[in-house]
Amino acid sequence: MAKASPKGIKLAVRLVRILKLLFDGHRLTTRQLVAEFSVSKSTILRDLERLSEFGLETEGYAYFLNPNILGAYSSTDAKNIVDNIGGTHLFPDLSLDLLSELARNDPKKTILIKGHHLENINPSGANYSIIRSAIRGRNRISFEYKKKYSSKNYDQVEPYKLVNHKGIWYLAAKHADRPKTFSFGLIQQLLIDDSKSFEHDAKLLEAVNNDDGIWFGAETQRIVIMVDAEAAPYFKRRKLISNQVIEKEFPNGSLQLAVQAVHPNQVIPIVKYWIPHLRIHSPAELQRQLIYEIQDYSEGIVRELP
């Protein structure tokens, strides 16, 4: 799947900085903003288009917020944009000075952001807008879900949220009375039915809002994982498995983790990645399944050797 550089983060901090100026009552011109951020006029015009839903108005060459809008928003709201894309933990000191530095291509800047490989969904921009509209209106949608070797049509899908998880966009939804997660990039031939709205499932909406990952469902399975001392610091530093809880820390530095998983695939791929440092303690059948898969893989490699 196509990947993008951290331009999204630069865009976010640039938008926050522009919003802060607007919230403070400034009238801005494209010439001012081009000079401020060292970007092209077309980039600034796209930024202003993105901010149009805040009630942006124009007079001559100036862009500004209606005084009534200024009473409804504050500069704190601007910073909340960064908070909502994970900036709360990414930047411990979200000062305007830091935002200004991040928004500029300054060779003297103090911070570099690396490793944020984001899915490029620009080719599906129309679908993005349609789904956001359907979510706001609680309208059902229909689409073709096109995987690499197969496709399937889905009708009467109830969209709840667009979720970005580890740089990839997903649609959290309900279909045929069951929670369902779709990869956004695989959605094609999208149609919206705005003739009637649906009622949210309160429990599902709570799960979508509060769960660490993209697996949503009422029935979960408790999976216990043992982490050796060498890998333990990485799992203590941040949650490498969605919904992981550190239940025990042993004197030798190893850990016992527990995960309430909707599906084993929430856990198994990560355990594979961390072999030999992780093993599934329970349920035992999952560890056996993992062993069989590794044996099949090893035997296949051996057979292919000259």
UniProtKB/TrEMBL annotation:
Give the source's domain of life in one word. Answer: Bacteria
Give any Pfam family that matches.
WYL
**Segments forming a coiled coil:** none
Under the heading Gene3D superfamilies, the entry gives:
Winged helix-like DNA-binding domain superfamily/Winged helix DNA-binding domain
Occurrences of domain WCX (ranges):
220-295
Query: Keywords of this protein's UniProt record, alphabetized?
Result: Transcription, Transcription regulation
Q: Where is the HTH deoR-type domain?
A: 14-56
Q: Does the keyword Iron apply?
A: no
Q: Does the record bear Ligase in its keywords?
A: no
Q: Which InterPro entries match?
A: CBASS_pafABC_assoc_protein, DeoR_HTH, WCX_dom, WH-like_DNA-bd_sf, WH_DNA-bd_sf, WYL_dom
Question: For the WYL domain, which residue ranges apply?
Answer: 128-189
- What is the protein named? WYL domain-containing protein
Q: Which organism is it from?
A: Roseateles oligotrophus
Q: What is the lineage of its organism?
A: Bacteria, Pseudomonadati, Pseudomonadota, Betaproteobacteria, Burkholderiales
